[in-house]
């Protein structure tokens, strides 16, 4: 049993605030009876829930796109800092965790889910899921240095980094050099260590995409939303 507003959020129909409005407007029924209170409980395995006349099928997994802000830790718990799970506490989803991690001072796209199989598939080294990072640099970068990064560089690990895709972007508001670095792996502080290997320094780092999933440009840092069915299907086919 669970609250009907939480059930609707789990169905990717909107935020808790939005689904409360749907309920208030009489758009939700349980076993044919209109629901008017968001705290009403539903047996997700036995009751028939309809939204706008469409029957909803229960799903045990939840998927959220989070715009991770800086100074937030990509972890489920931390004794000293705010975590990405803290940002999603209103959803109260059991087992919710980030897929991979972003450094504390890095912002951008982070997938949050309780689907362990999808998490495993996206993080598996065999999959080589692309991750696109927007990188603001302390110094201009030459074509020769970009070529080195594309071919793989020594960052102090046992093996060189895998070949990457790199393209230039327009300078930022401060006139600093901006590139996009598309990686097919995820090593510790990898982007920063790669740029250090060619004598540069990362001043700002933002993840734009992971596989087929792209950061929603309407989200502000700290905001999140459920994945659409199309976004989820794209990730599952990655």
Overview of the molecule:
- The protein has seven helices and 15 strands.
- It has 238 residues and is an alpha+beta fold.
- The longest helix has 9 residues, at 16-24.
- It folds into three domains: 2-56, Structural Genomics Hypothetical 15.5 Kd Protein In mrcA-pckA Intergenic Region, Chain A; 63-125 and 213-236, Pseudouridine synthase I, catalytic domain, N-terminal subdomain (Alpha-Beta Plaits, 2-Layer Sandwich); 131-210, Alpha-Beta Plaits (2-Layer Sandwich).
Provide a brief overview of the structure.
With 238 residues, the chain is of the alpha+beta class.
Note the topology.
Blueprint: E1 2-3, H1 4-10, H2 16-24, E2 28-30, E3 33-34, E4 41-42, E5 49-51, E6 54-56, E7 63-68, H3 84-87, E8 97-98, E9 107-113, H4 116-123, E10 131-137, H5 143-151, E11 165-168, E12 178-183, H6 190-197, E13 202-210, E14 213-214, E15 224-226, H7 229-236
Parallel strand pairs: 9-13
Antiparallel strand pairs: 1-4, 2-3, 2-5, 5-6, 7-9, 7-15, 8-9, 10-12, 10-13, 11-12, 13-14
Averaged pLDDT: 94
CATH topology name of the largest domain: Alpha-Beta Plaits
Could you name the CATH homologous superfamily of the largest domain?
Answer: Pseudouridine synthase I, catalytic domain, N-terminal subdomain
CATH C-level class of the largest domain:
Alpha Beta
Name the beta content range.
25-35%
CATH architecture identity of the largest domain = 2-Layer Sandwich
Order of helix and strand elements from N to C terminus:
EHHEEEEEEHEEHEHEEHEEEH
* Structural class designation: alpha+beta
Total count of domains: 3
Rg value: 21 Å
Percent of residues in helices comes to 10-25%
Task: Tell me about the largest β-sheet.
Answer: 9 strands, mixed
Shape: elongated
**How many extended strands?**
15
User: How many DSSP helices?
Assistant: 7
